[in-house]
Q: What sequence folds into this?
């Protein structure tokens, strides 16, 4: 909540506004709570960065897979088909208790409900452990126009992730996770707590601009509000990922697209801003370790298949992602052979 003993923030000067939002712990949540009537120019995205609603295909949706019997070859087949054809799917009966998922969402709300001077302690410049950081937009130092989102990012750690990777590897001809391939697939994990406050002009901005994740896999928990859109493979159209109670959304990231030599798809996705409700989401990014060199896995190359990607140091790949604002699917060009 904005402390009324303090002077109100200047909404007209973009530098002071950015300082209020980005550097003082208020975030876009603090700005939204001032009940501003219109969106400051700092957040107004060029048309091509906003979601074109005429491109949303409302009758389509990503697969929902019941994991209650994850050993069933039919379930395995659905997971791999979804990874090849959609790059995105939701899972139910995944074994993570609903109460745990509710607790995570509640903890996210509690964190963002802290006062700005408390949250400020988690800004990168103040954070005692550099493993935790509070950020507004994506990379506020680089983004010319800010995205309408605050997030707390923490490195973390999962039998569910291991099982999904085992299934996906099997189709690529890798029969087991071992000491060599397991750390490359899932050696480092990061969890983000995302907060998207009510926005005065949601149609003028984005919560998260179009991008693909740099992860191997992402496991996403979202609340009941909705707003995540996924690009349909080989198309200009977008599909909404509806919130389903108890569901986790899984998506393939660039690292797995590269390691599977393009067989599994890291799909572009974006989040719209919302004019009526606050939204939270909690993605866990399962990643290679920064020191890993990734490229198409030998076993994944079918006979005579050409490698579409070169070997890249994963930390270089991630650095490349964080050097620029969200810009669709172009990060992966960095690894093209
Ligand atoms: O909020 C969401 O639903 C997705 C967020 C996202 O795509 C990301 O943090 O990479
Ligand atoms: Fe993402």
A:
């Amino acid at each position: 909540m904005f402390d009324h003993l303090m002077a109100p923030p200047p909404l007209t000067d973009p530098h002071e506004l950015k300082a209020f939002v980005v550097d003082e712990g208020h975030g876009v949540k603090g700005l939204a709570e001032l009940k501003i009537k219109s969106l400051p120019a700092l957040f107004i995205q060029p048309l091509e960065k906003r979601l074109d609603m005429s491109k949303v295909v409302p009758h389509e949706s990503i697969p929902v897979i019941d994991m209650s019997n994850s050993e069933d070859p039919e379930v395995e087949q659905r997971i791999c088909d979804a990874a090849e054809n959609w790059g995105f799917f939701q899972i139910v009966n995944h074994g993570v208790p609903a109460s745990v998922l509710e607790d995570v969402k509640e903890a996210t709300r509690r964190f963002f409900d802290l006062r700005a001077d408390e949250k400020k302690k988690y800004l990168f410049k103040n954070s005692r452990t550099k493993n935790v950081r509070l950020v507004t937009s994506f990379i506020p130092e680089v983004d010319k126009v800010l995205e309408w989102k605050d997030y707390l990012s923490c490195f973390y750690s999962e039998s569910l992730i291991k099982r999904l990777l085992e299934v996906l590897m099997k189709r690529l001809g890798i029969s087991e996770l071992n000491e060599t391939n397991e750390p490359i697939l899932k050696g480092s994990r990061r969890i983000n707590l995302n907060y998207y406050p009510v926005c005065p002009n949601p149609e003028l901005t984005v919560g998260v601009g179009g991008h693909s994740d740099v992860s191997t896999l992402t496991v996403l928990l979202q609340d009941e509000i909705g707003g995540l859109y996924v690009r349909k493979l080989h198309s200009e159209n977008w599909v909404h990922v509806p919130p389903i109670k108890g569901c986790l959304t899984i998506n393939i990231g660039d690292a797995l697209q590269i390691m599977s030599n393009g067989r599994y798809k890291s799909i572009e996705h974006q989040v719209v801003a919302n004019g009526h409700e606050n939204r939270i989401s909690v993605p866990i990014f399962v990643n290679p370790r920064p020191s890993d060199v990734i490229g198409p896995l030998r076993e994944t190359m079918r006979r005579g298949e050409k490698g579409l990607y070169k070997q890249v140091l994963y930390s270089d790949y991630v650095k490349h992602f964080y050097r620029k604002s969200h810009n669709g699917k172009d990060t992966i060009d960095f690894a093209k052979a």
Residues 261 and 306 are 9 Å apart (CA to CA). The first strand starts at residue 64 and ends at 66. The longest helix spans residues 98-112.
